[in-house]
């Protein structure tokens, strides 16, 4: 079936929209959205893109580029779709705050396809999501297996200067999940060598990397991250020090483990049971009989 779609407006849905959209393969003018976006369309006789736009009486909004023949495949499995084949929509709403809230809502609801279509339409219209919406969308893509699309969005964020420590943390976790700790550590070191990137790094990024260092038993990088946290003026969290102690103990670095533990106590942070056990075991092996009782009293 070859059809065109005419946009009617916002605010309501039609129950059989999904049924109408599924068999469509070619769209010649302003195209459809998924039901979650709240757009309503009617099916009209297929015409050339120019005729469709003339009938719509679209208000001036800059240069509008139309593909004469756009092949769109709708599939029951959203993981098979990608941003390169995403449908673009004319956005009547241009307020960045309003559109960012929509992306945020769709991302939190895991309505991936709708979020991708809205994001792509915003990009085409030169409208930018805010940082919170960007990170939520990035997280949504990664949760649903769109690693390639997530990396493309992340590169866009880097170019626009909208990345945060949370953005880098999400990507590093994804790389670890797909390619392993070694690849994630290499990526971190590459980013860490760049001055601009280092300005964005925060405790969230460092806490993300510490467990990977522990898995690889890389106490040298663990110590480097610990020093970096202090040099950059950040204050480690309880999680930071638990990870430091755990990694140093596993690697047999007793002095570093004790130093991290002492610093944790000095900052008024409460060690958990596992941290205390690790320190006690380390001190016992070291032969310091008095140390364990002192730590337990803390």
TrEMBL record:
PROSITE patterns given for it? PPR (PS51375)
Task: Kindly give the Pfam families that the UniProt entry links to this protein.
Answer: PPR, PPR_3
State which residue ranges cross the membrane. Answer: none
* Annotated InterPro entries: PPR_rpt, TPR-like_helical_dom_sf
Q: Sorted alphabetically, which keywords does the UniProt record give?
A: Repeat
- Residues annotated as coiled-coil are none
In this chain the PPR repeats are located at 130-164, 202-236, 237-271
Q: Which family does it belong to?
A: Belongs to the PPR family. P subfamily.
This chain belongs to which protein, by name?
A: Pentatricopeptide repeat-containing protein
Q: Which organism is it from?
A: Acorus calamus
């Amino acid at each position: 079936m070859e059809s065109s779609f005419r946009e009617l407006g916002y605010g309501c849905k039609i129950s059989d929209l999904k049924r109408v959209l599924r068999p469509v393969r070619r769209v010649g003018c302003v195209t459809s959205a998924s039901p979650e976006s709240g757009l309503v369309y009617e099916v009209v006789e297929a015409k050339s893109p120019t005729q469709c736009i003339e009938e719509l009486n679209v208000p001036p909004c800059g240069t509008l580029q139309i593909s004469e023949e756009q092949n769109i495949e709708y599939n029951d499995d959203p993981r098979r779709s990608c941003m390169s084949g995403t449908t673009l929509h004319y956005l009547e709403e241009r307020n960045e705050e309003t559109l960012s809230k929509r992306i945020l809502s769709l991302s939190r609801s895991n309505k991936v396809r709708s979020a991708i279509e809205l994001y792509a339409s915003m990009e085409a219209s030169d409208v930018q999501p805010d940082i919170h919406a960007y990170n939520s969308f990035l997280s949504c893509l990664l949760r649903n297996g769109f690693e390639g699309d997530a990396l493309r969005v992340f590169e866009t964020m880097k170019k626009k200067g909208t990345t945060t420590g949370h953005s880098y943390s999400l990507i590093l976790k994804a790389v670890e999940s797909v390619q392993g700790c070694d690849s994630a550590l290499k990526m971190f070191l590459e980013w860490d060598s760049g001055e601009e990137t280092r300005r964005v790094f925060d405790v969230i990024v460092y806490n993300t990397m510490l467990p990977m260092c522990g898995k690889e038993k890389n106490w040298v990088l663990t110590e480097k991250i610990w020093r970096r946290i202090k040099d950059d003026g950040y204050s480690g969290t309880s999680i930071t020090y638990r990870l430091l102690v755990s990694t140093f103990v596993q690697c047999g670095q007793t002095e570093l483990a004790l130093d991290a533990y002492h610093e944790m106590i000095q900052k008024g942070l409460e060690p958990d049971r596992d941290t205390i056990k690790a320190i006690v075991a380390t001190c016992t092996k070291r032969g310091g009989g008095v140390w364990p009782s002192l730590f337990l009293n803390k």
